[in-house]
Amino acid sequence: MCGIVAYIGQNEAFPVLIKGLQLLEYRGYDSTGVATLNGTLNLYKQKGKVQDLLNFTANKKTDGTVGIGHTRWATHGQPDNQNAHPHVSHSGRLSLVHNGIIENYATLKTALQNKGYHFSSQTDTEVLAHLIEDIQTEQLVPLDEAVRLALQQVRGSYAIVIMDKDDKTRLIAARKSSPLAIGICKNGEFIVASDAMPIVEYTNDIIYLDDEEIALIDLINGLKITTLDNKSVALNIQRVDLSPEMFGKGKFDTYMLKEIYEQPSVLRSMINARLDPQYRILFDELLPHMDKFLKARRIIITACGTSWHAGLVAKYLFENLARITVDVEYASEFRYRNPVLFPDDIVIAISQSGETADTLAAIELVKEQGIFTYSLVNAVGSSIARLTDAVSYLHVGPEIGVASTKAFTGQVTLLSLLAIHLGYMGGKIPTQQYTELSKELEKLPQILAKTLICNAQTQKIAYLLKNHKNALYLGRGYNFPVALEGALKLKEISYIHAEGYPAAEMKHGPIALIDENMPLVVLATNESQKEKIASNMHEIKARKGIIIAIVDEHDTQITQIADYVIVVPAIAEPFSPIVSVIPLQLLSYHTAVALRCNVDQPRNLAKSVTVE
Ligand code: F6R
């Protein structure tokens, strides 16, 4: 939540900041601000998107070779010009951008107010600007030392960059529980950002700051990193494998549609990299830990949102194919519940961004108890990936549309591979079935490409759905988590209220909602549950509900009961979620477009939820 970017070098900072903010807009988009320095401070803040700021600054002075920028997702104080970042210290000397929450801001604020400091916003961030300046002037210490002493008083999370009006050769950056990366360019420039996206146009050499680290970025003396307790840190420069083309929309109008259409190709790359010519599944990163997996008493999967839904599919996969007990936990509940954990448990975090605050905290909790942790993450070098004992990357490319699509199918595909692998290694899947399942997965990308043909049909049905205020999504077995995911996709981008249920649970309450105005999306692709699903559908029809059924190409039975049908190719049942979610992604997409909603940046949401 919130994106920050900063530049220091020989070139103009403003265009770098604006471009960077546009790439970080997925992290929050309720207000934007920049400050550049050229003798005087050019500070501009605007409610709204980066484009609004750009329009506002069109004829204004923006020059300077050092600057900081911010795109906000409001936590403390409503989205307006006053609360937008950068925030400026009492004397106007320091300006600061912040991502995170200062939990003890109220106490710090009162202390500063008692000393005569005046606050011009309702944010927690402004406290930092005044506090740093207070220490700097009272203790007569350099800025980096003042930052260190100030952060020692702070509870909460932060990624910050600070600029001093009187020194255009330095920036100070620091982080705790909110991400921050520093790009190191060959020509001596530095770009600091919440993730690698704004950086890779200029350099692929990146340092990811660790928690409680402070970077002194000095144009003359280079980069120096120290910890909050003033120990020097060796520079760990990583070469990231990302290119600016990956961040465009290509031929598509929106990131979401592009990412939906990318699914066959990104999953082809994943599967090809994980299968050898004999169809054996490769998890080299888990080789040193295989014994732990095979002896695990239980796997606990922890995640949020769509990633939690992928975890729920994994419960079916791991229990059916590997016969391992799996619990799936919302990270936000798990971390505060004092859960009972056993030394031979394994905890798996699933996260696209690798930065979700609750998932990160859940992993910190179990690590303190010495439990083995493993993560499935998309964003390389992210906090969760670095914290867990082992990580498997999805490598599905940057996901920028706020509604998760290719990350979900990437997670479920990787979890399918892992379930088969563990099943085979643990002697629960015979060799022949192992090879058959691997071969079936190899066909998945081709099947997904065929699935996308349903786009036209989903677009037609979206015209029906858009006129309704509510929708129910029903599925059984492997398709129950897909029903939850379909409902989440619809509500988050089209703002139509939708709920997912196990189809048989309908009788225990939700059936009361069904009448001729209630559309129900019924997932009916799993062969083993078809009879049961058909009975549920008859119950709906008896109450005049409108049924939109997702069926596979061999179906004859469900098609006769449903009002509308979306046909997808058939695939072995354990992998059916990866196929049946595609029409649901498209259905929500077209409904949101028909309602003229902003599908890539839905209201109130942000892509990376770094606050709890
Ligand atoms: C929904 C969506 C969210 C995320 C959730 C977790 O489309 O994207 O529900 O899945 O915020 O995010 P990650 O996977 O980054 O931990």
Verbal overview:
The strands form 4 sheets. Strands 3-2-4-1-10-9-11-15 form an 8-stranded antiparallel β-sheet, with helices on one face. A 7-stranded antiparallel β-sheet has the order 5-6-7-8-12-13-14. It starts with a strand and ends in an 18-residue tail after the last helix. The protein has 3 domains: 3-246, Glutamine Phosphoribosylpyrophosphate, subunit 1, domain 1 (4-Layer Sandwich), CATH 3.60.20; 249-442, Rossmann fold, CATH 3.40.50; 451-612, 3-Layer(aba) Sandwich (Rossmann fold), CATH 3.40.50.10490. Helix 13 (406-425) runs antiparallel to helix 19. The model has no long low-confidence stretch (mean pLDDT 95). It contains 19 helices and 25 strands. With 612 residues, the protein is α/β, with parallel strands linked by helices. The protein is globular. Fructose -6-phosphate binds next to helix 9 and helix 16.
Outline of this structure?
With 612 residues, the protein is α/β, with parallel strands linked by helices. The longest helix is centred in the last third of the chain and has 21 residues, at 431-451.
**CATH architecture type of the largest domain:** 4-Layer Sandwich
Question: Care to count the β-strands?
Answer: 25
Instruction: Please work out how many helical segments DSSP would assign.
Output: 19
Regions with pLDDT < 50 over 5+ consecutive residues? none
Cα shape: globular
- Overall average pLDDT: 95
- Helicity, as a percent range: 25-40%
The CATH H-level superfamily of the largest domain is: Aminohydrolase, N-terminal nucleophile (Ntn) domain
β-sheet strand percentage = 15-25%
* Structural class category: alpha/beta
- CATH class of the largest domain, anyone? Alpha Beta
Query: How far do the termini sit from each other?
Result: 10 Å
- Major β-sheet profile: 8 strands, antiparallel
Radius of gyration: 25 Å
Bound molecules: fructose -6-phosphate
Tally the structural domains.
3
**Strand order in space, largest sheet:** 3-2-4-1-10-9-11-15
CATH topology of the largest domain: Glutamine Phosphoribosylpyrophosphate, subunit 1, domain 1
